[in-house]
Structure formats: C-alpha cells, structure tokens
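hey can u check if this looks right to u? its 129 residues, i copy pasted from the old doc so theres a chance i mangled smth
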Amino acid sequence: MTAPFETLVASLHGQSLTIAARILTRLGLPGESARRLGDEPPAIDPVRTALLIAAVRYGSHLPEARACLKAFAALPQRPPLALVSFNLTARKPAQQTAGESAHLRKTIAGFGLEPVAARAVAGKLNYPR
C-alpha cells in the first residue's frame, strides 16, 4: 500500500530520518521511504498530504525545513500538512502540542500555516557526534 502522504524530512545527523521510519512503521507503511530535503525546496505534490518532519537546531527549524515551508506557503492550492517538530524541549509532556511548543507555534504563525496535525517529539543530543 502506498502512503496517502508524502514524507519530507529535514535532518542534520539522521535522527529525523529514524523518526520518519518509525512513524511510517507505526502507520503500517514500513516499506515507504522519506525524502530528505536538500538545499533546494522540493516540488510538493498538490494532491497528497505533506508530512514534514523537521529538526530544530539552535532554536529554529533547519534551513531546508524553512525553505520547504516557504514553498508550501506560496502554493496557490495547499495540500493538507502534518508537521512534526523534532527538538529537545519536547521531552517534557507539556511541550508536545502546537499550542505548547514554542518552536511549532513560531513556525506555524511565521508561515501562515494551518496544519491538520502538528506535534513536537523529543530527540536526542548525541554529544560524541
């Protein structure tokens, strides 16, 4: 079965890709893959829901995630958007929803987004890397 959404990932060290794979597996789509964002904003499928999993670094989502959201916000017909913010503050239960997470609130408001779902998930800081 093909996912009804397109999974886009902004990751610095690959942790967001691991989270994407876990989400796809939990949704019963283990064979699906996520597309890692690069320097250029991706072409966004106007029909499929966009699932963006974006890491936060130094208080902001990664530049490739911001470029993707800027391109998404500029679409004349936006597909549904689900947003997952991967950051360290989400380790606290009171920092996991769009209303509670400053990173999500700032991103949603800054790009004028209306995601169908938004969630912050805790990541890990790998000091040796």
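The chain has a mean pLDDT of 82.
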